[in-house]
Amino acid sequence: MLQTVGRAGQVLDLFSAAAPEWGATAVAHELDIAKSQAHELLVSLADIGLLQRQQPGRYRLGWRIVALNSLVVDTSDLGEEPLRVLRALGARTGETVHLAAWGPGTGICVAAFEGRELGTPPPMAVGARMPGHSTASGKVLLAGQPWEAVQDALARDGLEAMTQRTIASSERLREELAGVRRRGFAYEEQEHQVAVCGVAAPVRDLHGHVVAAVGMSLSAARWQRAARDSTRAVVAVAERCSELLRHRALDRRTPDGTGLATAL
């Protein structure tokens, strides 16, 4: 059963903007499984609405994912408050901003707002992976994990060279993550995309654990003169989001502080 669930997750991970449709033959080849097994997985996912059938034998992501996405936002520990603060940051600075959370072994963009400045990088797509070796938000989230989790991520995903500036060794990554923990924020300087730089800072829960990252993306042309102010703004907003998250957690506790009020 667990193996089947894992395979289903692998199938869903195949879908992207560049590859929005998949069939049994391609899935079987990509996951190195039998075509009959790939067909069963696709049919099962379509039956529960996570996929939808297109032309015979072809599948796209289903609309139920949209409903689940909204439910995640409504019921997550983060809540709606950080999104309002993030939107205000983008409006105030004119830069592209995003919120990322830790997914299965990588950062995941959970919200993004496009900037209005000329040449501002387009926002990351919601649901896009934000690798811990090449993006500022990914570094912040990876730095919040124990080294064993970092090693697992490296073993699974490696260190893909996104640009000539991408971190290329585990030793260099370990140094970078140590610096992120020490500074309290992370930089990305044309490491994920050429001509794009960025800064990110951690959002922490009631226990001090990193649960999300506030990030800002700027064009490399603007980075040199805007890096300091951008860093201050992002760190301040991340701290505000952490404060909101702590208040949310405290509000949900029972009067004696032993549990969640919503669980009673």
Q: What key attributes describe this structure?
A:
264 residues, alpha+beta, Arc Repressor Mutant, subunit A, Beta-Lactamase, 2 domains, six-stranded antiparallel beta sheet, two-stranded antiparallel sheet, 9 helices, 17% strand, disordered C terminus
Q: Which fold name fills CATH's third level, the topology of the largest domain? A: Beta-Lactamase
Number of helices: 9
Give the structural class: alpha+beta
General form: globular
Can you give the helix content as a percent range?
Answer: 40-55%
Computed CA radius of gyration, to the nearest angstrom: 20 Å
How are helices and strands ordered from N to C?
HHHEEHHEEEHHHEEEH
What number is the mean pLDDT?
A: 87
How would a crystallographer describe the biggest sheet? 6 strands, antiparallel
Q: What CATH architecture of the largest domain do you see? A: 2-Layer Sandwich
Q: Unreliable runs, pLDDT <50, ≥5 residues?
A: 260-264
| Alpha carbon gap, first and last residue | 32 Å
Class of the largest domain in CATH?
A: Alpha Beta
Number of strands: 8
* Side-by-side strand order of the widest sheet: 5-4-3-8-7-6
The CATH superfamily name of the largest domain is GAF domain
